[in-house]
Hints:
Elements lengths: L31 E5 L5 E5 L2 E5 L5 E7 L1 E2 L8 E5 L2 E5 L5 E7 L1 E5 L5 E5 L2 E5 L5 E7 L1 E2 L8 E5 L2 E5 L5 E7 L1 E2 L7 E6 L2 E6 L4 E7 L1 E2 L8 E5 L2 E5 L5 E7 L1 E2 L7 E6 L2 E6 L4 E7 L1 E2 L7 E6 L2 E6 L4 E7 L1 E2 L6 E6 L2 E6 L12 E2 L8 E5 L2 E5 L5 E7 L1 E2 L8 E5 L2 E5 L13 E5 L4 E12 L6 E6 L5 E15 L4 E7 L1 E2 L8 E5 L2 E5 L5 E7 L1 E2 L8 E5 L2 E5 L7 E5 L1 E2 L7 E6 L2 E6 L4 E7 L1 E2 L7 E6 L2 E6 L4 E2 L7
Amino acid sequence: MKLTKVSLISLILIFIANASEIKKLITPKYDYTWQVEKNGLSKAMLNDKYGFIDVNGNVAIPLKYEMIGHSEDNNLTSVMLNKKCGFIDNKGNEVIPLKYDLVFDFGNNGLAQVGLNGKYGFINKKGKVVVPIKYDDIDNFELNGLSQVELNGKYGFVDEKGNEVIPLKYNSTSYFGNNKLVVVELNGKWGFIDAKGKVAIPLKYERVWNFEDNGLAIVKLNDRYGFINKNGKVVIPLKYDSVASFINYGIAKVTLNWYYGFVNAQGKKVIPLKYDYVDNFGKNSLVAVSLNNKWGFVDAKGKEVIPLKYDEVEEFSNGFTKVSINKKWSLIDEKGKILIPLKYDYVDTFANNGLANVKLNGKWGFIDKNDKVIIPFKYDIAWNFEDNGLAIVEIDGKWSFIDAKGKIVMPFKYNQVNKFEDNGLAQVGINTKEEWNHTKDYVVISEANNSGEWTVYEERPKNWGYIDINGKEVIPLKYDLLGGFGKYGLAVAQIKEKCGFINIKGDEVIPLKYDSVWDFANNGLAQAGLNGKYGFLDTKGNAVIPLKYDSVRDFGNNGLAIVALNAKEGVIDAKGSIVIPFKYDNIVGFDDDGLTEVMTGEKTFYMNNKGKKSYREKYID
């Protein structure tokens, strides 16, 4: 198992300047400056070299470093010069010599990871080596004062004095986290040890997983699954084909002889193991279940609330769900009451105005909750009503909006329209062109040539802009591509294959000079690409994470982004810190459990968002 390194050195270019006084520091002689740090200085960059300036814009520490970190409470700042790393003080003095290949952030215990010639250890703030620089990999210290280390493929733990308190003899270890026990594997057998290295639960299982909040852990033995408690006692028998974690309502999904059901934390069957498939619980405490190709819903106590008689069902939304029998659709409520006859080709849910868009004999219209037709079935496509009282409709390839009485509020002239955004604007496009298909957002056209081979195109508008609710074109239809206005009030715009961002007034806030840009993530950073290199921009257009990577992916909800450099993938955080080193062939992406599949060579395994290996079977969904 390889361990994470969070490098302070890699923090360098990433702190977004948001303090108003910093604007006074930005002068033409610097390419970029950051906000004032605790040392009273601001980082500055010029010609890809970094240093510090004072509040008057004067150089305080020469701009000569290839990389520079943030000033910490201890007045030490990590720097790189001639590819060697160390620490300087607030006057620029080299307090810890620049001799390491990598240096990392000082922890609360006053220790920092360092790397030299492919080996890792810890130093203190005086530069003294506390944990020998001899390990192949090393992790930050956990709350219990232990750090996971690896040497020659064996894993153990050292304390803050460098003592190997848990011998390096295990083939794999997890991390303690909030638990007092840690998962270990030796010679293909799995169990748990405590912080002193004492075996707490014997190493006899084929797999074990960390303890959940209810004090139970999944274990596997003889290809069967069950649950044990922290004393090692089997609480739920090891007899199941597969099990999933306890998530909702204190019950866990299990299979036996490949029939699905749910058990509680005592092992009692709450939902009988008789179904061909069960979905996951929604917010209304109902779960979709299937038996003999028929679908219905049961509650968390196992009661079949909605009979298993439907060919298809969908998830509940606002108290309703769509159901189908013999390819005819209807809506039912959470008690199973049929709200409209089962006669439509397709139905949508009721909007806030009490109308639902439904399809009959190939045409769309709108009905009320009494199944009365309010707007005739004459549209080729009709979307549900928005909160502003308008619905998108299409006839013969032209799009417009109608109100709840069916009145057309603007001419059918656009080739595509999108929903009104929170800012009261809707994106529209005109003048159709054909291009190669590369997105699911557009209408796909296919045609056969003389050889019978199919060529696939996409049909989309050539010119994009925005209209207001009155149909006024407030942003001219001149863009080749436009995105939606997101959280930060900026939209992706493209003209002649160059991209940037505009605001709701149509002002080009970030110049259209990039080869590619993506929407801003929740952390206020957006992907950008130029000349085959990629990085991240802030909302002012500053390249706060340099455009130096071979590829980047958006930041997820966990605040991490997968990036590639020199044909290897790793993970960085929003400050540019390396969370998972650049040494993997492929990092798939983090799932809801905080795990990602990682591939290197012929090896494939799971890793958590701290860069630690995590072992997982393919649980049932």
